[in-house]
Amino acid sequence: MKKLIFILFITLVLFTKPAFSMSTASYYQIQDIWTWADYTKGVIKIRLKSPDSNTQNLCPTGFWIDKTNSSNAQLLSVALSAYHTGTKVKIYASEAEDWSGLSSKECKLKLIVLEPK
To answer: I need a surface site. Which of 21, 63, 68, 86 has the fewest CB within 10 A?
Structure first.
């Protein structure tokens, strides 16, 4: 039984895609935050100032979050705070989750980390 559990654990670790498949290499300022009227159903887009080349390759036009539910409302609150204070952020996102509302490539925002002071 222990061997079976161990094999299942190893299989999950090796073959399960992580919740966030990319992160910015460093901390960056938020360039702008976009919101739209009704047709996007509450989608918000965030772009960084001069992100590294890996971030530009994976998420060339920024990051998005969907409807402002309680979890995403917290992400938006942190993003707005960082934007207005000029605090740099590190972002973790899912590059596999592109928002279908635009023809450009954005990654779904999963975590924002404020730069330590």
So the answer is: 86
pTM of the complete model: 0.77
Q: What is the pLDDT of residues 52-62, one digit of tens each?
A: 999 999 999 99
The 8-class DSSP code of residue 60 comes to: T
Helix and strand counts by DSSP (H, E) for the chain: 3, 6
Parallel/antiparallel/unpaired status of strands 22-23 and 89-94: antiparallel
Mean pLDDT of the chain: 82
Question: How many C-beta atoms surround the C-beta of residue 6 within 10 A?
Answer: 10
For residue 40, with 0-12 CB atoms within 10 Å meaning exposed, 13-18 middle and 19 or more buried, which class applies? middle
In 3-state terms, what secondary structure has residue 95?
Answer: coil
**Residues whose CB falls within 8 Å of the CB of residue 11, separated by 6 or more in sequence, listed in order:** none
